[in-house]
TrEMBL record:
InterPro entries: Sec_Metabolite_Reg, XnlR_reg_dom, Zn2-C6_fun-type_DNA-bd_sf, Zn2Cys6_DnaBD. Residues 67-123 are annotated as: Disordered. The keyword Phosphoprotein does not apply. Keywords: Metal-binding, Nucleus. This is Zn(2)-C6 fungal-type domain-containing protein. Pfam families: Fungal_trans. Its main location: nucleus. It comes from the Eukaryota. SUPFAM superfamilies: Zn2/Cys6 DNA-binding domain. It is found in: Nucleus. Residues 107-116 have a biased composition (Polar residues). PANTHER family: COL-21 (PTHR31001:SF87), UNCHARACTERIZED TRANSCRIPTIONAL REGULATORY PROTEIN (PTHR31001).
Length: 697
């Protein structure tokens, strides 16, 4: 053909093979890793590869900034070893300078220890204002400082200075040396990103857009020049340490980040944060919202590690700081700074709401006096409706995920207001009235998205992935509060129960059965939440503590030889046939329970704790305790069954059966009695055994 040279077939094969080899080489050389975040890559924009990136921050959607999983943070799989090495090389060429600097840095432990031993810090400045010297809460409207202000005293002379105090040069040098020991930004960015995506929904202590905005500004400022910069560094380190407690996870199966093991990262964050905390206290004795948050995160980390007492102490410290800065009063008070915007005020309200929930739950669980003893003040409750991750719907229509925390605060406020206690004196009528009032007044006011039987959940569950998880946690909080309402019935002695009127004895028996139904529902809820979270190992206490406490309740009930009360159950069912889900949504008045069902639920709870015990010390201790209690209960049950079988054999064939426990004279008398009166007496009056679980220790 014209215009095309004729090629020899061999030359054609050689040409094609050469072209294929060149194209393969060029494709391998030109292949590059996508460096932009997913939103910017979708919009074909090149971002600065930070978290959050410059474009997502400019679009006011920092929480949507996300990156594809880097091969440097994932364990290489055997079939793709060569491909993974290629990506590792490319990533290292991009960050070679940062990695080299990280390698030249001294270890966190040695650097922090040298800094602490370097000479320490001088005491903070001497207090000069009236509020600092006398300890008055300066935002009060009823204490002495309010009267002093009424007489015309200057605010600067009575309260703390609103101007940030400069950081002394010596302190700045110490802080700078500590900052050199923290992990590099790529590691911190990864942990912060993981925290926002996978962890923050559990406690919702921070609002992601608000935090990410401060996080980006913090990287751009001179972090050791102000007390805020040092304090925010502690918050970032506490968040990263807390997030690392949940790694590896089903969504992120890693044990190191940028080649640094998670244990070393966690230790580095904790050591530097512990060293910076006293510096912050010296620079600002009063505290701030940031301090409340990082102290609370330190407590949450302790709870994940099975140190509940440390969590309780951290909560105490956070509450004290919160009271000093006025989180417990209305944020619209005229004493607050005019520079505080509405979002900042809302963050203060939400933080105090979390403190109130933790204080109520922990004080009830530990049988302690709450740090915030008063009822919830409506003026301190969150007011803004903030929606995350939904740009194509009206904000007013979408549910606010923080509603779950508000509802838990309302649960705590309900039981505080209606005075359910853990005292020895138990009034079954009062407990019944509290339960009926809770079902008739509180439950109907729950928003439809969080209702016990939601009708509109399918509309939002697919759009908000954490909404089903939060709904399940809220339902578990309801069941736990009902357990606390009826649990004092387990502490009543047999002698005191017999002295009660007959109707109170029946009511007390019904409460024990109700307690069994609630505990079974709670264990089912924990199992459902565990499956929603991936069904794997986790350190979150929301799975461990309810599992252990509900199982102990069921063991106490099963240790009672009169449980379940069958006669009372029949009577109760006849009087509650007209009950509906609105008056008795959990079916505590009509649901029959069996002892075998309770024992099986305890075994399932034990299996869950044993599974979680591989990574959680709290689960390990709980599993060990349940194993011991369950074994003793089964041993006592076997002894009781053996005694009953012995009496039954005596009743059916007294000539053949010989009980070694009987004396020969007693056995002879039994044989000589025509109607076996003594044997029948023994059958009707079986020996009583102390079946209380508290007699096992």
């Amino acid at each position: 053909m014209l215009g095309k040279p004729c090629l020899d077939p061999g030359e054609v094969d050689t040409s094609f093979s050469t072209l294929n080899a060149k194209s393969t080489m060029q494709s391998s050389q030109r292949k590059r890793v996508v460096s932009s975040c997913i939103p910017c890559y979708t919009r074909k924009q090149k971002c600065n590869r930070q978290y959050p990136c410059n474009h997502c921050s400019r679009r006011r959607r920092p929480e949507q900034c996300a990156y594809n999983p880097s091969q440097a943070t994932l364990p290489p799989s055997p079939p793709q070893t060569q491909k993974d090495h290629l990506h590792d090389d490319e990533i290292q060429t991009d960050d070679s300078q940062q990695e080299a600097q990280a390698e030249r840095r001294p270890s966190a432990s040695s650097s922090v220890q040298d800094t602490i031993n370097w000479g320490g810090l001088k005491e903070g400045r001497e207090p000069t204002s009236l509020a600092e010297v006398f300890g008055y809460f300066e935002n009060s409207k009823s204490n002495t400082i309010a009267l002093v202000r009424k007489l015309g005293a200057d605010d600067d002379a009575t309260g703390h200075s609103s101007e940030p105090a400069p950081v002394p040069e010596e302190t700045a040098i110490i802080a700078q040396r500590l900052f050199a020991s923290i992990p590099n930004r790529s590691i911190l960015d990864f942990l912060v990103r993981y925290f926002i995506a996978e962890v923050s929904w559990m406690d919702q202590l921070i609002y992601p857009p608000w935090f990410l905005s401060h996080y980006q500004k913090w990287w751009e400022m001179e972090r050791t020049s102000t007390a805020y910069g040092i304090e925010f560094a502690v918050l970032v380190l506490r968040i990263c340490s807390y997030a690392s407690q949940f790694l590896p996870s089903p969504t992120c199966t890693i044990d190191s980040i940028r080649g640094v093991p998670l244990a070393d990262i966690r230790k580095s964050c904790d050591r530097v944060a512990d060293a910076l905390t006293p510096i912050c206290s010296r620079l600002d004795a009063r505290g701030s919202l940031i301090r409340v948050q990082h102290v609370a995160f330190a407590g949450l980390r302790s709870l994940c590690q099975g140190r509940t007492n440390a969590h309780w102490e951290a909560l105490s410290c956070a509450v004290r700081v919160a009271q000093r800065i006025g989180l417990h009063v209305d944020a619209t008070s005229g004493f607050y700074s005019h520079n505080m915007d509405e979002l900042e005020k809302e963050m203060r309200r939400r933080t105090f709401c979390n403190l109130y929930v933790w204080d109520s739950v922990l004080s009830k669980r530990l049988d302690q006096i709450p740090f915030l003893p008063d009822a919830l003040n409506p003026d301190t409750m969150p007011r803004m409706h903030l929606v995350l991750g939904l740009d194509d719907v009206t904000q007013a229509d979408a549910p606010d995920l923080f509603t779950e925390r508000v509802l838990e605060a309302q649960i705590a406020n309900f039981w505080r207001t209606h005075g359910s206690g853990n005292g020895a004196e138990y009034d079954p009528i009062a407990a019944e009235e509290r339960y009926e009032k809770f079902c008739s007044e509180f439950l109907p006011e729950i928003p439809p998205v969080f209702a016990l039987y939601p009708d509109t959940c399918d509309k939002w569950d697919a759009r908000l992935p954490t909404l089903p998880l939060q709904r399940q946690m809220f339902h578990m909080a309801i069941l736990e509060s009902l357990c606390h309402n009826f649990r004092p019935a387990l502490f009543q002695e047999a002698n005191s129960i017999q002295q009660l009127p007959a109707y109170k004895q029946i009511l007390l028996s019904s409460h024990k059965r109700a307690l069994a139904v609630i505990a079974l529902n709670l264990l089912e809820g924990v199992s459902a939440l565990h499956l929603m979270m991936g069904g794997s190992h986790t350190r979150h206490a929301s799975l461990i503590i309810p599992t252990f406490e509900a199982a102990v309740v069921l063991l106490c009930l099963c240790s009672d030889e009169n449980f379940p009360p069958k006669a009372e159950t029949t009577l109760r069912r006849e009087s509650t046939t007209s009950m509906t889900k609105s008056s008795d949504p959990f079916g505590v008045g009509v649901t029959d329970v069996a002892k075998d069902e309770c024992i099986q639920a305890v075994r399932s709870a034990l299996g869950r704790l044993q599974t979680l015990a591989d990574m959680n010390h709290m689960a390990e201790v709980g599993a060990r305790t349940l194993t011991r209690l369950l074994g003793k209960l089964e041993k006592i049950s076997d002894t009781t069954v053996s005694e009953a079988n012995t009496l039954m054999r005596l009743d059916t064939d007294p000539i053949v059966v010989t009980d070694p426990a009987l004396q020969l004279s007693e056995a002879w008398n039994c044989l000589q009695t025509p109607d076996y009166a003594e044997v029948e007496f023994l059958a009707e009056n079986t020996p009583t055994t102390d079946m209380s679980v508290f007699s096992w220790f």
